[in-house]
Amino acid sequence: MGCGGGSEASPRPPQSASPEFVPRAGPAKVTEVAEKCAFVAEDQWRGVGVDQPPRQSDWNGTPGCEYQLSGDAGWSVFVGVSGERSYKAEVNRRAEPTGGADLKGYPGKTFRNGADCTLIADISDLGFLVANGKTAGSDEDGVDPCVLAEQFGGMAVMNLPDAPVPAAG
């Protein structure tokens, strides 16, 4: 029973490189943050091996923060939020996604280009989170820039405050 091929509602489809958009399950997050390096807490970035002080930076016009592990097999991750356009608009202005992500209820799309991977995540009807992972070593070093982007993006989205809910009127 219950295993037939009827028209039962299916669970959320798995994330893939398809252009389909999964609805955001979490509350909307703010898209303006004064302290750009507060996205990821110090104990979090130290816990994943960051050995340089985080520094405010800019990625393609989006203000945020860069976290870095130095050395031959080093890496860096930029994390920022933007309220310039919606998540869907940002994803649609890019090439076809190479993968998908779920940051604890906040869906995202990844765009990989060699040792560089950009994650765009849906955090608000009016904006998105971007996490860009870059690795200095080769794939044989075992560091995947998309894993870095998802790891830091996940930490950041959980640390971002919820957006204020507009008063009913």
- Could you report the average pLDDT, rounded to the nearest whole number? 86
Helix count equals 3
User: Share of helix among residues?
Assistant: 10-25%
Percent range for β-strand residues: 25-35%
- Termini gap: 48 Å
Cα radius of gyration in angstroms: 17 Å
Rough shape?
globular
Count of distinct strands = 7
Question: Unreliable runs, pLDDT <50, ≥5 residues?
Answer: 1-18
Cross-sheet strand order for the largest sheet: 1-2-3-7-6-5-4
Find the structural class using helix and strand composition: alpha+beta
Summarize the helix and strand pattern as letters.
HEEEHEEEEH
Largest sheet: 7 strands, antiparallel
Note down, in words, how this protein is organized:
It is a single chain. With 169 residues, the chain is α+β, with helices and mostly antiparallel strands. Helix content is 16%, strand content 30%. The chain is built from three helices and seven strands; from the N terminus they run αβββαββββα. It has a seven-stranded antiparallel beta sheet.
